[in-house]
Amino acid sequence: MTTREDGYFLYHSIGQYPGKEADLAAAMADFGTIWCASDDRQWPYLLGKRAEFIDLWRRLLGAPDGSATTCENVTQGVHMFLTALPDNYLRGRKVLVAADCFPSNHFLLTRLQDRLGFELVTVKMRQGSGWVADEDMIAEWDGDVALALLTWVSSTTSHRIDLEALVAHGRAMGSLIGVDITQAAGLLPFSVQEPQVDFAVSTSLKWMCGTPGAGVFHVRPDLIPECRPELRGWFSQDNPFNWDIEAFDYAPDIRRFDNGTPAILPAAATVPALTWHANADTDAILAHNRRLSDILIGGVDKLGLKLLTPRTEKERGGSLMIALSSTEEAGKVLNDLRDVGISADTRGATLRLSPGVQTTEDATREVLEVLGRSLGTAG
């Protein structure tokens, strides 16, 4: 199978950037050299890399000092927050989520509602729609909603919510508000303070171009003292080297959400990607994505295919989802794209395309040519 950097359309899954392999290899070589050395440099180096990871993410999120830490993934981050809330905060009340959230989060919430005693309200999609409408979320969002978990951009349609409007409504209802930003972090501008949310979670994959296991978790600073994480350990303390087992006290900041010895390898492996992103022209990257997406949308229309993604820029992320007639047809299209070195993926009968920093206009037009030939609609 031929592979090409210019034909990479998988930024909704794993992000790539020029020089990523060399950067990652160098970082892992440094890690190996220091970790295997017969001296005492290991922990200062590793904890420094974790701190660098957190600081790079914190700046991207516009998050204050002491309000962001690592987690393995989004699901873990959501669990960390919900189980740390004051006793009975959720009991007898509602947790609100959209049906087009990332399924892993829904799996978690379905289980937690039994133990934490809340009612999970899942807002459904309208008949014929691929995403949950903002107005339908608002209609279900009343004063009994203790917490709402919002999905900034859907992984199934690339639909982007009106975060400002939903947060404003949630504030009026007195709810806590969390947001999963995974599908657009690093491509679309985002700040945890504009509008202010209570917690935010993301991975470092996709547009951030990082590695698995390198999640980030933010909590609003003035909310942190109210949280008492149930999973706690020596790194949850202000002084991790307190060995008095009768004198545990939570750190005053986000560190209280840490627990045992942190997993540092994913963070160290992701620092090169975060550093690249911090120095990149993100406005140009977004403009490039929008230009190539417009080419794809025009081509999809000419081929008579159904676009599952909103057409308006402010209502979508960086991906385009295209409906094909069957899973079998989608598989054939995917194989035909692979034959010419173009990387994409499918979910059932849906073709997913995400043009990123390495993707070229020529490759984008070639996708449409291959798509037309594969479906027998070329010309």
Automatic annotation (TrEMBL):
InterPro entries reported for this sequence: Aminotrans_V_dom, Kynureninase, PyrdxlP-dep_Trfase, PyrdxlP-dep_Trfase_major, PyrdxlP-dep_Trfase_small
Residue ranges of every copy of the Aminotransferase class V domain listed in the record: 60-329
Keywords, alphabetical: Aminotransferase, Hydrolase, Pyridine nucleotide biosynthesis, Pyridoxal phosphate, Transferase
GO molecular function: transaminase activity
Superkingdom: Bacteria
Protein's recorded name: Aminotransferase class V-fold PLP-dependent enzyme
